[in-house]
Amino acid sequence: MAEKVLLGIDIGTASSKGVLVATDGRIIARASRPHETSYPHPGWVEHDAESVWWADFLELARELVPAAEGREIAGLGVSGIGPVLLPADGDGKPLRPAILYGVDTRATEEIAELTEEFGADEILRRGGSALSSQAVGPKIRWLAKHEPEVYERTEMLLMCSSYLVHRLTGRYVLDHHSASQCDPLYDLRARDWSADWAQRVAPGLPLPELAWPTEVVGRVTAQAAAETGLPEGLPVTAGTVDAWAEATSVGVREPGDVMLMYGTTMFFVQVLTYLQPHQALWGTCGAFPDTYTLAAGMATSGAVTQWLRGLVDGDFAQLVEEASKVPAGSRGLLLLPYFAGERTPIFDPDARGILAGLTTSHGHAELYRAALEGIGFGVRHNLAAMGEAGGTARRLVAVGGGTQGGLWTQIVSDITGQEQQIPAETVGAAYGDALLAGVGTGTAVAPDDWNPVTRTVRPNPEHTERYDAYFGHYRDLYDSTVRIAHFLAGEQRAADERD
C-alpha cells in the first residue's frame, strides 16, 4: 500500500505557499510564489482572483504533486486571506477584483450606516464583533451602492478559500469561521446565517452552504484535475481564513492559547470555550466546533519594515544587525505604525503613521528599531484589550516570517513582558491546511504532536521596565495627534482624486 501524504495550499497577502506533508507531520516538499497586491485608490486593497489566487494555486499544485513520487495524496486543504469579498456570477466567475480584509477601508460610510440601522449593541450581541473595515457586510452594501451593475449580476459570495474550493469541486460552500466574519450576516450563537439581516444587507444574494474547516465538502473534478495535476476524486476540505489555519498548525487550540502571526500585518488569534464579545476586538467561531476565538489585527507590521528598507535601500540582515546594537527606546524615538489606518483596537481607517522625537542624530538603525518597537507597542495594546475582554493570554506562540532573525520577537517579548514559544515549523497556514485535511480525512497521525515547540523567547526585565515608560506615551501619541492625522488623511484622498 502506498504511503499517504497530505497537501496544503494557502494564498496570502504578498505570497502563496504550499506544502506536501506526511501524515505524521513531516514536510516532504514545499513551494512558494510571490504576487502583487493592488492599491487602486487610498484605502482600497484588492487581488485579482484569476491572476493571483488561481494562478498561484496552479503553479504550486503543479510543482508539489510530482513531489509525491508514488505516494497517495489523501487529502487537500486550502486557506487564504480573509475575510474578503469576491462577487461572482452563477458559474463562480469573478465579476471584479476581490475586496480584501480589514486593510481595505472603502466602506467607512456603510459601516456607520449599518451600525445605525441595526444598533451597535445588537450587532455585537448577535455577531460577536462591532462593525469595522474587517466586516464583509458593509463591503457588500458598498458594492450594491457604488457598483450596482456588478451587484445585480452577483450570485455567489466567495472568499479566497471558498473560491478555490468551488474551482476544484464545483461546490458553493463557506466554512463557519469565515462566515462569522461576514458581520452582520452571521449569528455567532446560532452558528448560522442571520436570514433577516442578510436579506437587508445582501438582498437577493444566495448565501453559501456552511461547513466546518475540517469537513470534506467535495472532490476534485475531472476538469480541475486536468488543470492542476491533482488526482481526480481527491477529497477537499472546506478550508478557512489563513490565520486560523496557521493557528491550528502551531497547536493553538486550547483556551488561553494565543497565536501572534508576524507578517505583512500582525494578526492575533486567541482560543476561547465561550463567547466573549468586545467592541475593540473580533469575536468569531473557532476552526473547530464548540470553540470561539477572539481575534485582533494590526493594519501594518512587516509592511512598515519593508517600506523602511526600501527608503534606505538597506539589506535586511544588515539593518537587523545594526538595529540590535541600538538601545531599547531607539535613543528617544517613538513610532505609531498606523501607515494604513489601524484595525484593532482603535478601528480608525484615517489613523496615520507618526514618528516622534526625530533629530539629525538619528540614523537608519534607530529608525528601523523604532519601527519594530512601534509594532511591539501595538502588540501590547491588543493583548491588553484581550485581557480586558476576559481572554487571558496563558501561552503566546509566534509564527510567520518575522520570527526569523530574533530581534523582532525579542523586542515584542521585552515590550509585553511575556514569553513567546516558537514551534519547529513556521511555514504558515499551508501546514495547517494539510493538518485540517488530515483530520477531515482521518489520515493524520497524532496531530497534536505534529509541530513541537523548539525555542522560547524570554523578556529582558531591564528592557521591559524601560518600555513600560514608553508605552503610556505610545497610547497618548495617538490621542494627541488624531485630529491632525484625520486632516492629512482627507488631504491624501483629495490629492488622489485630483490625480
Textual characterization of the structure:
- The protein is α+β, with helices and mostly antiparallel strands and 499 residues long.
- It has a domain at 4-244: ATPase, nucleotide binding domain (Nucleotidyltransferase, domain 5).
- The protein is 39% helix and 21% strand.
- The chain is built from 16 helices and 24 strands.
- It has helices at 49-64, 108-118, 120-127, 137-146, 148-153, 160-169, 176-179, 195-201, 222-228, 242-249, 302-312, 316-324, 364-388, 407-416, 429-441, 461-498; strands spanning 4-11, 15-22, 27-34, 46-47, 72-80, 86-88, 98-99, 156-158, 173-175, 186-187, 192-193, 209-211, 216-219, 235-237, 240-241, 257-262, 266-272, 282-285, 292-297, 334-336, 354-356, 395-399, 420-423, 453-457.
- A five-stranded mixed sheet has the order 3-2-1-5-15, sandwiched between helices. Strands 18-19-17-16-22 form a five-stranded mixed sheet. A two-stranded antiparallel sheet has the order 4-7.
- The longest helix has 38 residues, at 461-498.
- The mean pLDDT is 95.
- Keywords: Carbohydrate metabolism, Kinase, Transferase, Xylose metabolism.
